[in-house]
Amino acid sequence: MANPKDEHMRIWEALCKTDPSHTKQFTRAGGFKGTAIKPMWANRQMTEFFGPCGIGWGQEKPEFVTVSVAEEILVYCTVSLWYMQGSTRQSIYGVGGDKVLSQVFMKDANGYKIFDSEKGGFKTYPQTDDEAFKKAYTDALSNAMKFIGVAADVHMGLFDDLKYVQQMREEFKDEQPDKKDPSSARLHQENAPRATSTQQSTQQAHQRAETAPAAAQPQAGALKFTPPNGLTAVVKGVKEIEGLPAKPAKGDIPAMKAVRPRLIVTFLGQYNGVDEASCFDTGLWPAIKDAVGLECHFQIAEKDSNGKHYVNIEDVLYVDGVPYVDGVPAVDTATGEVLAERDAQ
Predict the structure, then answer these.
(1) What is the CATH number of domain 31-153?
(2) Among 60, 77, 158, 170, which has the minimal tally of Cβ within 10 Å of its Cβ?
(3) What are the backbone dihedrals phi and psi of residue 96, each rounded to the nearest 5 degrees, phi first?
(4) Are 148 and 83 in contact (CB under 8 A)?
(5) pLDDT of residue 248
(6) Rounded-to-integer distance, Cα 305 and Cα 290, Å
């Protein structure tokens, strides 16, 4: 006799696992951090299981509502998502939101917020987003899909576990676009997010590494080698902390000295009891920011401040298997060969 539970979980089990290559880490105002699923990948999951959009699944016309709050305008979207179960059409609802008009803090040349003595707060200026309705609609669809299990592992917090993410990378590695198939490669490029200059450098490094002589390739397992005071982990998120003025000594009125700004880097797993590190070298920031969601290898220093243990990133050694020098991929642009491994030097 068939187990009713198996039938009830059939759709969920088919859609619940997420390919890490189609996710990205984010940090919102207030420090909230999480994992975002690329919408087109979720749409593909629905299409693979139910059939083409409009036939096996689809959505009704979305409904939008705008709300004005504290000189900002918010937009909320409610959408009905349907899918076919045999000849029966089933519906679920999702709600999403975004900001059409937001107030942004004004900052001076040093990056500090400008205080408005007349209003008793910091100065702001209005900023509009012409894609806010689209973002709210996409958010609503994603929230509806999760009710039947799409990317359930992300919503259940399993992507906070480094071992689980690595397990998913292995499970989905055979589903990556075929580099020899022009149509597949083109589709992958069209769906990829717009890359920053450092990301483009990393991608070019990968491409050159694939065509370089075998002797020039990094040795297998090099990314797993951890030297003293080294850290290998998947970067979960980054957050910039402004340099704040230091308090003058008691009885002294010297010029306020600025504290260096730093980058807070959170990673999956822990290193000696901590799951985040600082980086004061702004030259390394582009490489670290572009490495969110990727496995990285850092050279670090352990420090103690008032009895509190923390780690500081001193160098970026590898990003997604590519060796780095001074924050950029270690590739000889003249020959296209990957340079000697940093760990061997």
Answers:
(1) 3.30.390
(2) 170
(3) -140, 165
(4) yes
(5) 54
(6) 29
Alpha-carbon span 100 to 126, nearest angstrom: 10
For 175, counting Cβ atoms within 10 Å of its Cβ (0-12 exposed, 13-18 middle, 19+ buried), the class is: exposed
Residue entry with tokens 């994992």 = 35
How far, in Å, CA of 288 to CA of 270, rounded? 18
Give, for 174, the enclosing helix (H) or strand (E).
Answer: none
CB 268 within 8 A of CB 236: yes
The pLDDT of residue 292 is above 70: yes
Cβ contacts of 322 within 8 Å, gap of 6 or more: 202, 205, 206, 209, 218, 329, 330, 331, 338
Cβ pair 180, 186 in contact under 8 A: no
| Distance from C-alpha of 63 to C-alpha of 75, rounded to nearest angstrom | 10
Fold of 214-344: OB fold (Dihydrolipoamide Acetyltransferase, E2P) (2.40.50)
pTM: 0.52
The domain spans of the chain are 31-153, 214-344
* 95-127 pLDDT per residue, tens: 999 999 999 888 887 778 888 888 788 888 999
Selection from 95, 100, 104 nearest residue 63 by Cα: 95
